[in-house]
Amino acid sequence: MRPDWDDYFIEIAKAVSSRGTCLRRTYGAVIVRDRVIISTGYNGSPRGMENCIDTQKCTRKELNIPSGERYELCEAVHAEQNAIINAPPDRMKGATIYIAGFEEDRTFAGGKPCKLCDRIIKNAQIKDIVYLQKDGTLARTTMY
Q: What pLDDT shows up at residue 143?
């Protein structure tokens, strides 16, 4: 059966997440406008820095810090942030961002953006967020 557009783009976000370099969770994001992919991004160290998967070191993991806390200890740039950084600003206005993530054991991770990413998405004038939830279902948030 042919997937609907949300399922199609979330599957692409899942594939993008496979490039993530975090030891705890991998995320992928895809920005789409008018059913055309504008940009993609995955979570990982900034360009030119060593990746956590290469060094096998994660401060937040070592300190057992829960998800969503103490981001200042993390070297990674979030998938949403990377997708926005790589996108032309004028193409993001009114777009949709699709976000999918996986835990270390490859179960679904909650894809709802953190508070910082939420603000960055708003500032990029992205209209809708579609994300994969831990139970495998999709959720949608409209920003304006």
A: 87
Question: What's the token pair of residue 68?
Answer: 């969503």
Count of C-beta atoms within a 10 Å radius of residue 133: 15
Task: Count CB-CB contacts under 10 A for residue 118.
Answer: 15
Q: Which of 72, 80, 103, 104 is catalytic?
A: 80
Task: Please state, as a whole number, how many other Cβ atoms lie within 10 Å of the Cβ of residue 69.
Answer: 10
The CA-CA-CA angle for residues 26, 7, 83, to 5°, reads 45
When pLDDT is cut at 50, 70 and 90, the band that residue 69 belongs to is confident
Q: How far apart are CA 1 and CA 132, in angstroms?
A: 20
Whole-prediction pTM value? 0.94
Of 85, 91, 78, 89, give the one whose Cα is nearest residue 131.
78
Query: 84-96 burial, b if ≥16 CB within 10 A, otherwise e?
Result: beebeeebbeebb
Higher per-residue confidence, 66 vs 125 = 125
62 noted as active-site residue: no
Measured CA distances, 115 to 75, 105, 124 (Å) = 17, 25, 14
